[in-house]
Specification:
Beta-Lactamase; 7-stranded antiparallel β-sheet; about 50% helix; elongated; single chain
Length: about 725
């Protein structure tokens, strides 16, 4: 046997088994049936070619040559397959089209069998016996033209379908297109081009057909897009379902567990098939056997699932009877692992409990007498440590010259003792002190590496075993006079926004206590002085701010009991609006100028607070504040602060949906008594037909109302995100009667 005869025999065997595989992959599908027929036809022709090349005389060679007469049927059959794949199978419903496709090929086949119009006999070449083409025959020319037309049509239709398809369809047609192209190119070269140029080379049409069929079959078998049978669809659904699934017979013996179930349980099939379902569902007695005998019965309940390693996990289980012609034949169990859901529920309950506890503590503290500073500080440090479960809580105060920080009281949770007297030189920690002055608090999950707390590494953190910190400045009459410190020594800790807010409230109480103490000492001296007026004004602002803090706390306490997410969001938004106004009074209290608000400081503090509420840790949302020397009176500050609060909150909630990053910019400037405020983001933008005057959302309605209150103008720019430009003049103070 020469090598070329062996190639033909090998191709025949490969394609024969390929036809069997593609047929039994989906025997009811027409496409699979036609590809199988094409494979068997190529297998037959390859075997005939093997006989021809291996023939030992001219008589046997002529016999094998005649058996290949049906070769012209390959191309119309291939085009039929392409029409089905490219979803043009409606064409095949026309019988005339079928006749026009296969009749010319049938005539060519009979002509080749009964006449010598296609070849002039046989010759024995180095690869075995081969036909001599009758190059002077017009029928041969028409045959070649017909085969080329059908082949090119198949390729063009496939390519057109490739251009407009996507996903699995595109992958499937790519394999088919490769297969068709290989067959057409190799056939033209070895059957026509080389013989016409008198170059002796073995014909490789059937070999290339086998190679091309491998691509076509792979595309159809692995990306089968034509109509699937219900049985195939059901098998795929069961095999790929994300929930675990168990099927038993009526005696509760396990017959099937899907791959997800086997992986979750830790068993292999041989270990669990045939075993009682009680092995994995210990609370199976919740399902009564007589109920499951009823056709269509289903029961849903929470239970536990026993794993191979003797662990058990919570699941949500559905048990349904399986019947055939109203007779029960088994039970279907479908379950969902609810460990994550249970953990989230537990976490929510824990957070709600902690929030209620913190708000209750605050409400009680606001009622207490805070005029005795030393007693108040000890009570506060101990209360905060136990409420937040912080290892060490301390209060530090600057001396008059602001050169030394002295620990007035420190409470250590483990030993339940109070200490004091430790001193730190302020000039050794410039970054830390500057960071506190410019923010509402300073949190450092890893205090040893945080840029604002690393200064303490060798002098304070390591000697005291401190890992994490949350420090809040203490203000008195616009001046930072001390620090409230929360220090973790046992483990690294990330303080939540609620914990930071609680700590800030405690800092305000200390400020109140300081002021009460100072006021008691100087009360007689300031009664007749102008300073008394300023102190009283500050106290008013402080009291207003604290009252707003109580309102915010009450809103937070109330929202923790609301299950409806939309209603809870309404409470949170109201809480943020109260806080934005509270910050105005807080700043007036902290500054020497009781009539003007420095908006650069105010906006930075407001944005930081809003980012802690709305910005997800999974998103990289940046912000930039460019505010010139703008100072506004109280009449203008409140509506302006609310506008900024609403616009930034709106950006954080809506502008960066389905985005991982973005930027919010706030600019503010004053020129010729005209103030310009710009709040912009580079998010997804708002619809082109959006009209702010007709908006239905409370936040933007509030913005429109506040702009009118300021007697200002607003322009909304929808390019490259959303930009709000508001121009207004400072409101003149109206004397009250």
């Amino acid at each position: 046997m020469n090598i070329y005869a062996f190639i033909s025999l090998f191709s025949s065997i490969v394609v024969f088994f390929l036809g069997n595989y593609i047929y039994y992959k989906n025997p009811d599908n027409r496409l699979n049936q036609l590809i199988a027929i094409l494979c068997f036809l190529v297998a037959y022709l390859s075997f005939a070619e093997y006989g021809l090349r291996n023939a030992d005389n001219i008589t046997n060679a002529i016999f094998w040559s005649k058996t290949t007469f049906i070769w012209p049927m390959l191309t119309p059959l291939l085009l039929t397959i392409v029409l089905i794949v490219t979803k043009r199978n409606k064409i095949l419903k026309n019988k005339l089209i079928i006749i026009l496709l296969f009749l010319p090929s049938t005539v060519i086949s009979l002509t080749g069998l009964l006449t010598n119009q296609l070849n002039n006999g046989l010759t024995n070449a180095y690869w075995g016996w081969t036909t001599i083409l009758n190059l002077n025959s017009p029928i041969l020319l028409l045959t070649v033209l017909w085969i080329i037309i059908l082949g090119l049509t198949s390729i063009i239709l496939s390519y057109m379908y490739y251009r407009k398809s996507s996903g699995s369809e595109k992958i499937q047609i790519t394999y088919i297109l490769i297969g068709l192209t290989v067959v057409l190119i190799v056939s033209l070269i070895t059957e026509l081009i080389l013989p016409l140029n008198s170059i002796e080379f073995p014909e490789l049409t059937y070999f290339s057909s086998a190679f091309g069929l491998l691509f076509i079959s792979y595309g159809v078998a692995n990306y089968r897009l034509p109509s699937l049978t219900p049985e195939i669809a059901a098998n795929e659904i069961v095999r790929n379902i994300t929930n675990f699934l168990v099927i038993t017979d009526c005696n509760k013996k396990i017959n099937y567990v899907n791959p997800v179930g086997l992986k979750l349980l830790g068993y292999i099939k041989s270990e669990i098939y045939g075993k009682s379902v009680d092995l994995i569902f210990p609370e199976h007695n919740k399902i009564r056997s007589k109920d499951l005998q009823h056709n269509g019965y289903t029961k849903h309940f929470e239970t536990t699932l026993n794993l191979k390693n003797n662990d058990s996990i919570p699941i949500l289980l559905s048990a349904s009877s399986i019947s055939k012609k109203t007779s029960p034949i088994g039970i279907l169990y479908m379950g969902t692992d609810i460990r994550k859901r249970k953990a989230i529920e537990q976490q929510k309950r824990s957070i709600a409990k902690q929030t209620i506890a913190r708000q209750s503590v605050l409400l009680e503290l606001y009622k207490e007498d805070i005029s005795e500073l030393e007693k108040t500080l000890k009570h506060l440090t101990e209360t905060v440590s136990k409420t937040l479960n912080v290892d060490r809580v301390s209060v530090w105060f600057f001396n008059k010259e602001k050169t030394v920080l002295t620990c007035t009281d420190i409470y250590i949770l483990d030993t339940d003792v109070h200490e004091n007297g430790l001193k730190l030189i302020a000039q050794d920690y410039p970054k830390y002190i500057n960071a506190l002055k410019n923010s509402h608090n300073l949190t450092a999950e890893n205090a040893l590496t945080h840029p604002d707390t690393a200064e303490f590494k060798d002098s304070y953190l390591k000697p005291n075993g401190i890992i994490s910190m949350m420090d809040v400045p203490i203000w008195l009459q616009g001046e930072m006079v001390g620090v409230l410190c929360h220090e973790q020594t046992k483990n690294m800790r990330k303080y939540t926004f609620e914990e930071q807010d609680f700590a800030a409230s405690i800092s305000y109480i200390i400020s109140l206590s300081l002021e009460a103490s100072e006021r008691d000492k100087a009360q007689k001296q300031i009664i007749d002085s102008l300073e008394e007026k300023n102190v009283l004004l500050r106290e008013i602002h402080h009291r207003v701010k604290n009252n707003m803090q109580i309102i915010s706390s009450l809103l937070s306490l109330q929202s923790s009991t609301i299950e409806n997410p939309e209603m809870r969001e309404v409470f949170h938004e109201s809480q943020n609006r109260v806080k934005s106004m509270s910050m105005i009074h807080e700043q007036l209290y902290q500054t020497d100028n009781l009539s003007k608000i420095d908006f650069k400081i105010y906006i930075n503090g407001l944005i930081k607070s809003l980012f802690q509420i709305y910005s997800s840790s999974l998103k990289q949302i940046k912000w930039n504040v460019d505010v010139k020397d703008v100072k506004l009176n109280l009449e203008t500050s409140i509506p302006c602060g609310l506008i900024i609060n609403e616009l930034i909150s709106n950006s954080l909630k809506h502008a960066f949906k389905e985005r991982d990053s973005g930027k919010i910019t706030v600019k503010m400037d004053s020129y010729n008594n005209l103030i310009t405020l710009i709040v912009a983001d580079n998010g997804i933008g708002i619809p082109n037909n959006f009209q702010i005057e007709n908006t239905s959302t409370l936040g933007l309605k509030l913005v429109t109302t506040l702009v009118k209150q300021l007697d200002g103008e607003m322009i909304v720019n929808k390019e490259n995100g959303t930009s709000f430009t508001i121009t207004f003049k400072e409101i003149t103070y109206m004397k009250r009667e």
